[in-house]
Amino acid sequence: MITFDGVTKRYPDGNVAVDHLDLEIPAGQTTVLVGPSGCGKTTSLRMINRMVEPSTGRIRVDGRDVRDQDPAELRRSIGYVIQQAGLFPHRTVADNIATVPYLLGWDRRRARTRAHELMELVGLDADLARRYPHQLSGGQQQRVGVARALAADPPVLLMDEPFSAVDPVVRTSLQDELLRLQQELHKTIVFVTHDIDEAVRLGDTIAVFRPGGRLAQAAAPERLLAEPADDFVEGFIGYDRGVRRLSFFPARELRLRGDAVLAADTPVATARAVAAGGGEPWLLVVDDARRPRGWVSADLLTTADAQTPLGDLPLVGFGHVFTVEDDSLRAALDAAVLSPAGRAVGVTQDGTVVGVVAQSELGEAIWSVGNDDARDAEPVGQDG
Amino acid sequence: MGDQPLVRWDWIASHLVDPIGTRLLEHLQLSITPILLGLLLALPLGVACVRWRALYPPVFTTVNILYAIPSIALFFLLLPYTSFSAWTAIIPLTVYTLAVLVPNVVDGLNQVPDHVRQAAEAMGFGPLRRLVQVELPVALPVVIAGLRVAAVATISMVSVASLVGLGGLGQLILTEGFRRQFPTPIVVGIVLSVALAFLVDGLLVLLQRWWTPWTPRPARAGGRNRRSAAASTAAASSAADRPAAPEGRRRRA
Ligand SMILES: Nc1ncnc2c1ncn2[C@@H]1O[C@H](COP(=O)(O)OP(=O)(O)O)[C@@H](O)[C@H]1O
Ligand SMILES: [Mg+2]
């Protein structure tokens, strides 16, 4: 656990970067410091490993005041990742990763072996070991940066906007990777970003900073979205916090309709009866393997020839689907909104159809969670 | 010089060891020593100038003023103290090397990206370790670029040292050639000193490739004809190899 006790940082030019910060950062979890530029996030982070000394107040890591420890030694026990990766241009990928092990006096063989383990852990091809940083893509450089920070297996990891400089696709995959790593490693991660979506996605706790270096609110992401402490936090989170909060509610609790799903060889006459019986304006047609093929409307069924199999009719595209087990209400809502039939198709992980859900039915589910507490503080699926 | 042939091969053949070989060795010794001494002094001086910023302006001004004094004047100025020892040439030439190298060491260190320096600090490098293991190695290409300029300038300036009788290929040109109105030693002296400059420069380029395998290389020009490929490689490498060679310090006499 990392504790800030009444920490203030006033730079020599009189600038107060952090103002009376009290914050507890739980061990083994990811805490995200988020806020607009210049509100003291980097300064707060750097006070943890003594790259910046607080003017007043105290910072403890696992109960020990950081000032009681030699700065260089303290830093070797705290991983650090920065925006441009900060890789050493004159060292190969493997030697960059082995930096802290070398500093700790490991022998060369052991450090190299460790570097190779870490390359595998962060998803870097072993062939890259002998390359130099300028021969890597931005995303690969960041992976090396993360591997280097983890090399000596420090319990604490500080990350200062590590994914801000890469393009959105690479950023998403790096975020996924970090979530996966954290599930495996349970480090105490302090992650700085100015991007609230990234914060919601990665954080177990989010600490929102306001200009002037003051903490505005620290809470689990779902709480933050449900109950922003004040207008500043609400404005910073953005206007669609209600919809985004749906990320924290799993879609698996939705009641999906299996009866509105028919095989492609079903004759139109049978389908008509199903549509009339359920009052369904749209039916989903699936193939032999129960994969979705498209929507057929009740209107079309009334005019089509009674013996034609549904598969031979002109079907309306089913748009994108949501995965019942992994996705959130937000993904289900998104699929329904984008569907020409106004209905979302829920599938299993291998893509077979579980059932469909209409916007109106989704609305009820959303309403029922509206004032409820989240059952699950972890973001669900890929859309947090 | 009348109607003698420009090069008399028989003279060259009979004087290959003495004076040609002797003068060449002298020349080499008179240029290598100040280059190495200059490098040895420029590194700590440059590091100090980066560490204590206020130091740089006076140091820079001082070496520039010394650099502005014609070498021949410095040689004569030193003669009463060092007489005809090698030091009379070595001391001024070391000062010139310093004048070229100190700004390069300073520029090289200043060009170390901030995020690299900060990453080193955050990984737990102490200040000295960071300097030796990160900052100086990253500054090395700029330092070597300066070294190339200094080496070529020094090799050509050693010839001037002969005017005050300090030996080297200049001696060959002056006493064997000019005073005796005999062109062959003059040609030999010029060709050898140019060749020496090329050789030393080439060695430094090789050294750079070997010491800094991590610097971005221009892409190989495959498929194109040899001349244009060579030209583009030369252009790219001179741009990459001399990022901060100070203007107007290429040559002096
Ligand atoms: N070394 C410094 N000297 C003076 N002021 C600084 C220094 N570093 C940061 N600041 C100021 O402190 C404030 C907070 O900076 P920082 O912690 O970097 O914010 P953030 O990371 O949230 O963008 C800013 O106003 C910044 O200008
Ligand atoms: Mg910052």
TrEMBL record, chain A:
The keyword Metal-binding does not apply. InterPro entries: AAA+_ATPase, ABC_transporter-like_ATP-bd, ABC_transporter-like_CS, CBS_dom_sf, P-loop_NTPase. It comes from the Bacteria. One of its GO terms (molecular function) is ABC-type quaternary ammonium compound transporting activity. Its EC number is 7.6.2.9. Residues 2-237 form the ABC transporter domain. This is ABC-type quaternary amine transporter. It comes from Marinitenerispora sediminis.
From TrEMBL, chain B:
Residues 24-209 form the ABC transmembrane type-1 domain. Keywords: Membrane, Transmembrane, Transmembrane helix, Transport. Residues 218-246 have a biased composition (Low complexity). It is a multi-pass membrane protein. Its main location: membrane. Residues 218-253 are annotated as: Disordered. The keyword Transmembrane applies. It is found in: Cell membrane; Membrane. InterPro entries: ABC_transp_perm/SBD, MetI-like, MetI-like_sf. The chain crosses the membrane at residues 32-52, 59-78, 84-106, 138-166, 186-207. GO terms for biological process: glycine betaine transport; transmembrane transport. PROSITE patterns: ABC_TM1. Pfam families: BPD_transp_1 (PF00528). One of its GO terms (cellular component) is plasma membrane. PANTHER family: GLYCINE BETAINE/L-PROLINE TRANSPORT SYSTEM PERMEASE PROTEIN PROW, OSMOPROTECTANT IMPORT PERMEASE PROTEIN OSMW. Belongs to the binding-protein-dependent transport system permease family. This is ABC transmembrane type-1 domain-containing protein.
